[in-house]
Amino acid sequence: VLDQRIKQNWAVPEWLANRDLKARARVRIDENGTIISKEIIRSSGNENYDTIVLETIERSSPFPAPPEKFVAIVSVQGIVIGFPE
Question: Does residue 62 have a cis peptide bond before it, meaning omega lies within 30 degrees of 0?
Answer without folding.
Answer: yes
